[in-house]
Each structure stands twice: as structure tokens, then as C-alpha cells.
Amino acid sequence: MNVSVIVSTYNQPAWLEKVLLGYSRQDFGDFELVIADDGSGEETRRLIAGFAEKSGFPIRHIWHEDQGYRRSIILNAAILASRGEYLIFSDGDCIPRRDFVRTHVELREERHFLSGGSVYLSVEVSRAIKAEDVLSGRFADPGWLRSQGQRLGRHRLRLVESGFRAALLDHLTTTNPTWNLNNASTWRDPLFAVNGMEMEMQYGGADRALGSRLENLGLKGKRARFRAVLLHLDHARPYKTKESIQKY
Q: What is the pTM for the complete model shown?
């Protein structure tokens, strides 16, 4: 095993359960899952423990006490605890498509980081997705999503099956590859070389700051927006405050 998937979460056990089911159905199984938990309660602990008991891959729960928004700190702890040479990052509200881990592994490249894509769902469709929808894979089917009331628009293109068409779209898009921790990956050593996340920064800024330091180190972004795909569940964000955004 040389791959670690690091997923951050905070008090969203219903959403996290769907995410864990998504990882249980990956077509590449040689990875560990490290959950960076920013102080969730007992329901989340029980959920993770239950999955860990029956999972075909290692699951570890890295937790600290809830003292406000400290995502950067717990992510650094999860990076330190991880065992992989290659680290894939996502969030506990992002369900991975069946080929998500394999795509990151196959596209990895020395001196690069991967920038994947997300399809943002409405809160109604987020709630409508059940365990069987994740296990069957239909949660990522455009026709099924539309039948549930999801308007896809141009994001329909992100749900093309991974292959030549998806690779072509990644080649043609003019969107710059950026480091966003809901869907990004790179090698372990560069993350240590730039000293991980900026622990004093809070909502939004810490991701961008880490990406800038990786680029200053010499890493180049590589687009995987149409190949490494997640479906992003909607939910309230009480921690997204003016103070948390402005804190540096």
C-alpha cells in the first residue's frame, strides 16, 4: 500500500455515511482511509468504528476536541498519521465515483499535483441519495440525477465516463488547475517540504495558501476535473463566517 485518502469531516454523519459507502465501492482497493475529524460527536465516532470493523481497507479516525473551526490543524495531524507515499484529499460531504481513487493513482506524476472536479448537488437531491444509490453507482448517473430534480447544466460534462472523452475535456478546458482539498492529490514529500497546512488560517484561505506553497516549491497543477469526479452534497455551513474567512 502506498496510497492514503484523507477525508475531513465535522458533525455530518448522514453525509459521511454516503461518502464511506462510496469508498467501499471503489474499483481500486489498495489504499487506506484516514478521517480527519474536527471535533465531531459520538454519532460520527460510532459510524466510523462500524465501517472500520467490516471494511476491506484500513480506516483510521484522527480526532481532536471541538474548539471551533480547526480544520487545518486536524488535516496536518491526519497527514502525519498517514502511511502512504501518495495522498488524496477530499471532504466528508463528497461522494467519490467508483473510479475516483484509481483515477488519482493512474494520473499521478512526479513534481505535479492533481486538481479534480465536483458536481454540486441541491440539498433536496443530496437528501434523496440513499445507500443503495451509492452502492449501485446510480448516484453519479446523469439520467438518475435529473429524475430526482437535479439541474446539471454544463456540469453534465463532468459525468462522462472516464476515458478518451474525459481526457480530451481536461485537455481543452481553460480552467487553471488549483489546489482545493475537496479533490486534490500529490506526493507526501512535497507536503512535508512546505510544512503542511497553515494552522492559523480558517475557511477557504488555507487551501489556496497550501497550493501556492506547492507551486513555489516547483510543483505544477495537472487537470483531472473531468476524470477524477466527486458529487458534492449540499448542507449548511455555520462555520463559514466573516471572521473565519478573514482570519489569517
A: 0.93
